[in-house]
Amino acid sequence: MVRTVRHFWPDLDLWLGELPDTRFQPLITYDRRFLAWWGLGLFVFKLGSRRQLDFDLRDLDTHLLTNLNRLAGTQQDSLPVGGTLDHFVGHLGLDGVPYLALADLRAKLVRRIIRMKALDDERLLGHFVVAVDGTGWLKFDRRHCTTKVPLLRTPRRFSMRKPGSQESRISCAPPGFLVSS
After folding, report:
1. DSSP 8-class letter at 97
2. DSSP state, residue 77
3. Among 8, 54, 90, 158, fewest CB within 10 Å belongs to which?
4. Is the whole-model pTM more than 0.70?
């Protein structure tokens, strides 16, 4: 993993070091780069919540502390608890906008792999394909809509052709319909 990260984002340590740190400096135990990598561990290890960092990754046999120190370029002697990460992430706003520093970091990461043409072979009709996972973004504890959305049993099909290539079939449904398989 270290080789992959260093290949695609050689400046990542610098970028993580530039994250704003508005925590009370005399009481800081964990470096911001270390905490950023600890937070990235949520996604790398496909954990569902910050609490799982505390329960699933505490085993000494995983050598997680050693690897995080190597990735972050730090020499921490213990792993933080989930509350520490929560506190750190709460301080990542810029100019009063919460989480703006994380959005800026994400833009730098994507910009880098686009500039190095790492994704060029995967373009569709000359454009990058972007998948967005919005599940769980909006959640309602009670039913908020009384209108039933009909299921479309047979998805509509349309064709897209790139000049000089074979035809591709893509399934889609009109807005307001759910595709049922």
Report:
1. B
2. S
3. 158
4. no
Tokens representing residue 43 in the block: 């996604």
Angle between helices 64-72 and 32-44 (to 10 degrees): 120
Residue with tokens 């919540």: 49
Give the type of residue at 69. Answer: N
Neighbours of 122 (CB within 10 A): 8
Which range among 4-13, 25-34, 57-66, 170-179 has the greatest average pLDDT?
4-13
d(CA 82, CA 57): 11
Domain map (residue ranges) of the chain: 2-121
Q: Return the higher-pLDDT residue of 51 and 12.
A: 12
The more confidently predicted of residues 68 and 96 is 68
Q: Is 88 exposed, middle or buried (0-12, 13-18, 19+ CB in 10 A)?
A: buried
Kindly give the pairing relationship between strand 168-172 and strand 156-160.
antiparallel
Q: How many CB atoms lie within 10 A of CB 12?
A: 21
The Cα–Cα gap between 111 and 132 comes to: 17
Q: How far apart are CA 98 and CA 41, in angstroms?
A: 21
What is the Cα gyration radius of the chain?
A: 22
Is residue 134 very low, low, confident or very high in pLDDT (cuts 50, 70, 90)? low
Mean pLDDT of 86-106: 78
In terms of Cα–Cα distance, which of 153, 158, 180 is closest to 168?
158
